[in-house]
């Protein structure tokens, strides 16, 4: 499953005043215009997320670099973060006993 589908699978899309933008593809090898757009969005490294207002200017910038980024609404972003937190939550430690099991005296059964 690619990153786009993974992000979209959490919550249905709804309009949001804020957009969470995550850079999911590398910058090397892209056009200079795309690099400048990512720089204006303050996306410098892969898997970094920034929050921007949902304005026509920002949407136009995202249209230019849509193959490099994933766009999430606030609900989608919170659902993804909650899912990651649940995955990283502390679990009870698994106890492994490496000692041999105690031998039962089955050969000396009382009659």
From TrEMBL:
- Domain Large ribosomal subunit protein uL30-like ferredoxin-like fold, by residue range, is 20-69
A GO biological process of this protein is: translation
Q: Which GO terms describe its cellular component?
A: large ribosomal subunit; mitochondrion
User: What keywords are annotated for this sequence in UniProt?
Assistant: Ribonucleoprotein, Ribosomal protein
What segment(s) does the record annotate as region Disordered? 82-111
List GO molecular-function terms, semicolon-separated: structural constituent of ribosome
Q: Which Pfam families does the record associate with it?
A: Ribosomal_L30
Q: Which family does it belong to?
A: Belongs to the universal ribosomal protein uL30 family.
Give the protein's recorded name. Large ribosomal subunit protein uL30m
């Amino acid at each position: 499953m690619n990153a786009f589908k993974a992000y979209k699978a959490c919550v249905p899309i709804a309009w949001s005043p804020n957009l969470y933008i995550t850079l999911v593809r590398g910058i090397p090898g892209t056009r200079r215009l795309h690099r400048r757009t990512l720089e204006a969005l303050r996306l410098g490294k892969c898997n970094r997320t920034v929050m921007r207002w949902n304005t026509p200017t920002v949407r136009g910038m995202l249209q230019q670099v849509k193959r490099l980024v994933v766009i999430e609404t606030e609900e989608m972003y919170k659902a993804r973060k909650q899912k990651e937190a649940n995955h990283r939550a502390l679990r009870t430690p698994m106890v492994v006993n490496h000692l041999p099991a105690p031998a039962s005296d089955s050969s000396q059964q009382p009659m």
